[in-house]
Design goal:
It contains 4 helices and 8 strands, in the order E-E-E-E-E-E-E-E-H-H-H-H. The chain starts with a strand and ends with a helix. Among the domains are: 83 residues, Beta Barrel (OB fold (Dihydrolipoamide Acetyltransferase, E2P)); 41 residues, Irregular (Dihydrolipoamide Transferase), CATH 4.10.320. By secondary structure, it is of the alpha+beta class. The strands form 2 sheets. The chain has a 4-stranded antiparallel beta sheet. The chain has a 4-stranded antiparallel beta sheet with strand order 5-4-2-7, with no helix packed on it. Helix 3 packs parallel to helix 4. The chain is elongated, with a radius of gyration of 22 Å.
Length: 190
């Protein structure tokens, strides 16, 4: 039975942590006390040691994701059971590959003003977006409830100390994540 690894309480009054990077990939072996993930809180950045020996079966949290303490972040299986539990994905058939190439959109050229037409002036059809794909976070609609701002814990803490609304700070990190430097730059403009 795989064992859950939870985000520990790394310091007093720490309520959340950000997974900065995984040091071990899924399916790789782990020794007990081997560092396997790097986590940052508003007080400390640390490499967490594995509490078990085994194989990293599944990462439950993505890099850059902020999660509360005591949240499961990974599953570790014992070496013997890992092979039976690792998901085996069969190679897609030729038909499936051909169908996917028909449905999935390719790279989309810059908008030349003829975006409403299915045909470009040279007569080639334009790629059509796949209606079955999930929208990315950038495609949210105003009717949705406000989402939590993606920011590193240290940036949240600094914004609180400076009395700034973190939602007003433009983020320069991956996916628009607000970093400490962004908060300092925003405060300097104010």
């Amino acid at each position: 039975m795989p064992k859950e690894v939870v985000l520990p309480e790394l310091a007093e009054s720490v309520v959340e942590g950000e997974v900065l990077r995984w040091l071990v990939n899924e399916g790789e072996p782990l020794k007990k006390d081997q560092p396997f993930v790097e986590v940052m809180t508003d007080k400390v950045t640390v490499e967490l040691p594995s509490p078990y020996e085994g194989v990293l079966l599944q990462k439950l949290v993505k890099e850059g994701e902020v999660v509360p303490v005591h949240t499961p972040i990974a599953l570790i299986a014992e070496p013997g059971e890992a092979a039976a539990l690792m998901p085996q994905t069969p190679a897609p058939s030729v038909q499936a590959q051909e169908e996917r190439s028909i449905v999935e959109p390719g790279p989309v050229a810059e908008d030349d003003g003829a975006s409403l037409s299915l045909f470009k002036p040279d007569g080639k059809p334009e790629q059509v977006k796949n209606p079955f794909t999930r929208p990315t976070p950038l495609q949210t609609t105003p009717a949705q409830p406000p989402r939590r701002v993606v920011a590193v814990p240290a940036a949240r803490k600094l914004a609180r100390e400076l009395g700034l609304d973190i939602a007003q700070v433009p983020g320069s990190g991956p996916g628009g994540r607000v970093r400490v430097e962004d908060v300092r730059a925003y405060a300097a403009k104010q």
